[in-house]
Design a protein that fits this description.
single chain, 7-stranded antiparallel β-sheet, globular
């Protein structure tokens, strides 16, 4: 693993940063600093992660919020722990409801796609199990910025403006009024450097901190959510909130060229990245990135993603197991499909059986890889009046095909796009990594890991490197700065290449790695307002 600050072959405006006592890498500078402040108060990496995550709901509301979900990989007590804080469908939301309504698709916006939010429960659970400081203490920065305001950063302003244009088009009706009241009080999105604040958001965060999130699920906040959604024909009830519990799960991993790469098991899509790496493990890649290497990486991803969209669901409903999808025999059968030309992937037959990312580390060896999201920017577009809570729309990922493993069912968790990643070697932690961005996330994980391990780029160069994204079939989209020679070589192999002219479709990530001497090195990327706060 290359921990050097050399930037070749992808020059960067950012330097790889080093620290020893602590580090926080986040997509927003104020949030990263909030986490670092907790370390300096005697908190650990878990406290820093909670402070950063809560702060991000305020300073980057375009990508996450109190009403979203979260996942985390936590290295503590000399082991890696997985937290799944995704929420299930309401008890009274079923396929029969859609049949009676004559609906063929799950709506994107409004009250119907809202599932139980898990983020507040994640903060409380992480704090109770691993934190050194109280939840009240670690959430103070988020409360401060919500109440006193903060200057909006450029990337956040860009996505806020896009979200506002989308809202004018899609947020039609009384149920969406409160989104405009909270997030566009002046009849527009805030400009870069403009102060935005939300007293309701601050009060809600205070209540969550004071009650270890229980008021959100059992008290007055839960009651307010129930009453507003009931008024607007929503399916999420107070009973759904009251029965919610986060899940601690054993992380899943694959061995890749001397390293172990870890992800959260389904219902998250981290399995896609692991399967792609397993397929790629048996293929030779040159040490220098070239068209042949990129072709093999793309083909491995296409096969894995096709399987993922076919089989990943709430694990209680999957027709096959993680072990089957990662089994040696099955991986070899998928690998055998890769040739010198781009393929049209089909799912195999295994044996039956808006998002923010942050990374933290402290001087004691604790490390956190955490991700939370409202999905599609501001989520459902529904804001509970008097609370500042923007509710997510994760239910949109359910299939309405009753034969599909990811078919909607009461109390079932949907296929989830947000995934934190973690690297170890010989059972020792190297550190957290992640790339936010919907279905781009496993593709981002794969590209970052191959940059780090196969092509020996340092973390900053690995994040800076231009990316591609598989869109389906043989269609590949690349960033504007993607090397022309590689594009030409991929076209010759049958890939249909298009160049993306807009910003924001290729993920935004952070990395923290620990070297053999215990020094931390961190990186964030130019696709975001990111910051690495160092101690």
């Amino acid at each position: 693993m290359n921990f050097s600050s050399l930037e070749y072959p992808y020059p960067s405006k950012r330097n790889l940063l080093y620290g020893q006592k602590g580090m926080v890498a986040s997509s927003q500078p104020l949030a990263a600093q909030a986490g670092l402040d907790m370390l300096k108060k005697g908190g650990n990496a878990i406290d820093a992660a909670i402070a950063t995550a809560a702060c991000l709901t305020v300073v980057e509301p375009t990508s996450n919020g109190i009403g979203g979900d979260a996942f985390a990989l936590v290295w503590a007590e000399n082991d890696l722990h997985g937290l799944n804080a995704s929420g299930p469908a309401p008890a009274n939301l079923s396929l029969e409801y859609f049949e009676k309504q004559g609906l063929k698709e799950m709506p994107v916006y409004g009250t119907t796609p809202i599932t139980v939010p898990g983020a507040p429960a994640a903060w409380a659970e992480l704090s109770e199990r691993f934190g050194n400081l109280s939840l009240k203490t670690v959430m103070k920065p988020a409360i401060h910025y919500a109440r006193e305001g903060f200057p909006v950063t450029p990337a956040t302003a860009y996505y806020w403006k896009k979200a506002y244009k989308n809202a004018l088009k899609n947020y039609q009706g009384e149920v969406f009024k409160h989104w405009f009241d909270v997030f566009a009080p002046q009849g527009r999105a805030p400009e870069p450097g403009e102060i935005w604040k939300s007293e309701d958001h601050a009060t809600t965060l205070e209540i969550i901190a004071a009650t270890m999130s229980r008021d959100f699920y059992e008290g007055n906040i839960a009651k307010a959510i129930d009453e507003f959604l009931s008024k607007h024909h929503g399916k999420l009830k107070k009973e759904d909130l009251e029965s919610y519990q986060v899940r601690w799960e054993k992380p899943i991993s694959v061995h890749y060229r001397g390293y172990d790469v870890w992800e959260i098991p389904p219902n998250g899509q981290g399995l896609v990245a692991l399967q792609a790496l397993s397929i790629l493990e048996g293929l030779e890649l040159d040490t220098e990135e070239n068209g042949q290497a990129v072709h093999r990486i793309i083909e491995s991803l296409k096969l894995a993603f096709t399987d993922g969209k076919t089989y990943i669901a709430d694990p209680d409903h999957m027709p096959t197991s993680v072990e089957s999808l990662l089994s040696k025999e099955y991986i070899e059968s998928r690998r055998a499909m890769i040739s010198e030309n781009a393929l049209l992937p089909e799912p195999g037959m295994p044996p039956r059986g808006g998002t923010v990312y942050l990374a933290t580390a402290d001087g004691e060896g604790n490390m956190v890889s955490m991700i939370q999201s409202n999905y599609m920017g501001f989520g459902s577009g529904v804001v509970i009046p008097g609370t500042g809570i923007a509710l997510h729309n994760r239910g949109h990922n359910f299939s309405l095909d009753p034969r599909h493993p990811n078919a909607l069912a009461p109390g079932k968790r949907p296929y989830h796009t947000i995934i934190p990643g973690f690297l170890t070697k010989k059972k020792k932690p190297l550190g957290p990594f992640g790339v936010m961005g919907g279905f781009m996330q496993p593709q981002g994980h794969l590209q970052v890991i191959t940059k780090l391990i196969d092509f020996q780029l340092n973390p900053q160069a690995a994040l800076d490197a231009p990316r591609w994204q598989w869109l389906g079939g043989k269609k590949i989209e690349v960033e504007q700065n993607y090397p022309e020679l590689l594009i030409q070589q991929l076209v010759e192999k049958g890939h249909e290449i298009s160049i993306q002219r807009e910003r924001g479709n290729f993920g935004r990530g952070q990395i923290i790695l620990r070297n053999e001497s215990g020094v931390l090195c961190g990186a964030t990327e130019p696709r975001t307002d990111g910051c690495v706060a160092v101690w």
